[in-house]
Amino acid sequence: MNTATAPVPLAWTSELHTGDGRMDETHAEFVEQLNTLLATPADQQLPLYRTFLAHTQDHFDQEDRWMVATGFTADNCHAGQHASILETMRAVEEHYLKGDQEIITRLAEALAEWFPQHAASMDAGLAMHLRTVQFDSRTETLADPSAIRPATMSGCGSVSCS
C-alpha cells in the first residue's frame, strides 16, 4: 500500500505579491509551473521540468539584469541565491536521468517551501528599490539613468541582508 501523500501546491496569494507588476506576473508563472510539476506523475515530469528550468533561468536572468541596471554588483547575494538554485536545478535533471525519478518532486516541494520567503524578502525588497530609483521593469529603463552609480550595492535589495 502506498502511504505517500500528494505534494501540496503553492497557492498564489497576496503575500507573494511584490508590488512590481512584471515581477509578479513572472512569479505567478513560476508558481503555476511549479504546481503543474507537483501534480504530474514522476515518470512524466521531465519535459515539464525542462520547461520550468528554462522559465526559472529567464526569471532569474530578468531580475539579475534589473539589479545590475539599478546599481547592484553582479555578484550580489540575491543573484548568488539565484545561481545556487539554478545549479541545483541542473543537477536534479542529471540525477533524474540516472534513475532517481522522485528527485524532481522533491525539488519542487523544496522550491514551494523556499519561494514564499524569497519573494517576501529579496524580491519585495528589489521591487521597492526599483520603485525608489524609478526603474520601469516592463521597458527595463530608468527615468533618470544618471541617478544610478553602477555596481555600488552588493546586498540583496532587502533588509534581510546587506
Explain this structure:
The chain contains four helices and two strands. Helix 1 (21-39) runs antiparallel to helix 2, helix 1 (21-39) packs antiparallel against helix 4 (103-132) and helix 3 (77-97) runs antiparallel to helix 4. It is elongated, with a radius of gyration of 17 Å. Helices cover 58% and strands 2% of the residues. It is mostly helical. Residues 158-162 have low confidence and may be disordered. InterPro entries: Hemerythrin, Hemerythrin-like, Hemerythrin-like_sf, Hemerythrin_metal-bd.
Short structural summary:
It comes from Hydrogenophaga atypica. Helix content is 58%, strand content 2%.
Give the SSE layout:
Elements: H1 21-39, H2 46-69, H3 77-97, H4 103-132, E1 135-136, E2 141-142
Antiparallel strand pairs: 1-2
Helix pairs in contact: 1-2, 1-4, 2-3, 3-4
Keywords:
162 residues; mainly alpha; two-stranded antiparallel sheet; 58% helix; elongated; disordered C terminus; Hemerythrin_metal-bd; metal-binding; Hemerythrin-like_sf
